[in-house]
Amino acid sequence: MGGIAYYGSCPSEEFVRYVFADGRIVFFCYGINVASFMNDRQASITALEGWPEPIQKKLQFEADKGFCDRLRSSAPMTLVIDFSRATRTSLLDYEGTLLTAPYELLEAGPDLQREAFNIFKIIPFGSRDFWTLVVEAAQRFCEFLNANLPDTKVILLDMPPTADYRGALIDRNTYMADFCRWQIRYPISRMLIDFCRERIENSRILAPPSDLYSDDTALYGPAPMHYSVEVWREIAVRFHANAGFEGLPRASDTVSTLTNYSGLMDAFTKTALTNPNLHRFSLDILLGALPYLFAKISSPGHSHFGDPIDSYDVVAAFRWILGREPESVETFLSHYALPSRWELRETLLRSLEFQNQVTNYAKR
């Protein structure tokens, strides 16, 4: 056994680059959802002929599968994992083969996206089906590591986005809008980390120092999840100074987690004067999103959801009953948290807005 492996996205790649600079990389898997990673059904997708080459290559590479076998054969001494990609893109189902929707498809034109709907079954990010597949796959992933790589040291990266941008390539408001998107994804990543930490026997959690920032030296350009080169160097120094893997905590650091969750409030309070709308959006998320994200993700199959509400149910109900869409993130999330579709319908029908529109409405 020897060498370094990583599975995840930019955080894992950069962590390995700086912390294990002289290490031999024996396996890596970049940008693939754990539901696809643990799905062994291979596929040859001939319908992709004529699609842009980057999309074809990514989807066919993923459809060839065999990730578990390659990871087992590599027998790494250390495996570094982050879940930032699982917090962003939908899944594609091609005749039982699960794939990660590539970023290039999300940014493609409407004609190509419509064609994708005819080829794949889309499992939308954040839906009940999506999280059921992800959580079940994460459970199997943990069992696979325990059974096949019990001596591999597994490092789970808790990498929050940073609101501190010290560069000049992009403007502050553009950066902060991106931070807002990543900050709402962060609790999802953190829950998946905690889920796996409880189940992978030889695992530890690594949280970075609190003084995170991004600047124009970041490998893939400045962004909330792309730390400065100096930050990564500091992470490497601290890791080795604290005895490496053995010096990492086995349990979650609640103070660090709550501090990272609260980052949105501090960041947008500082920018409220330059962009009040950005500040209001951040408060909507703080007040409404995190409790419901926790409920939806931590136990997606829990019986108290009964007839569960998906995100598109809320928008559709507003359109059909009130003739409009939810006016704010807070309104959307408060209705998203209702226990059933029946309760969602009844809440809107009982609303003063609907009563004023339909004066002769008869209550049940």
Can you characterise this structure?
- With 364 residues, the protein is α/β, with parallel strands linked by helices.
- It is built from 16 helices and 8 strands.
- The strands form 2 sheets. It has a 5-stranded parallel beta sheet, with helices on both faces. The chain has a 3-stranded antiparallel beta sheet with strand order 5-4-6.
- The chain is globular.
- The relative contact order is 0.10.
- About 7% of the residues have low confidence.
Give a quick precis of the structure.
The chain is an alpha/beta fold and 364 residues long.
Query: What is the first-to-last residue Cα distance?
Result: 67 Å
Taken as a percent bin, the fraction of beta residues is 5-15%
Oligomer: single chain
How do the strands line up in the largest sheet? 2-1-3-7-8
Helix content: 40-55%
- Residue-averaged pLDDT, rounded? 83
If helices are DSSP runs of H or I spanning 4 or more residues, what is the number of helices?
Answer: 16
- Structural class given helices, strands, pairing? alpha/beta
The gyration radius over C-alpha positions equals: 22 Å
Largest pleated sheet: 5 strands, parallel
Q: Based on DSSP secondary structure assignment, what is the total number of beta strands?
A: 8
CA-based shape: globular
User: What are the low-pLDDT stretches, counting only 5+ consecutive residues below 50?
Assistant: 279-298, 300-306
Q: Helix and strand string, N-terminal first? A: EHEHHHEEEHHEHEHEHHHHHHHH
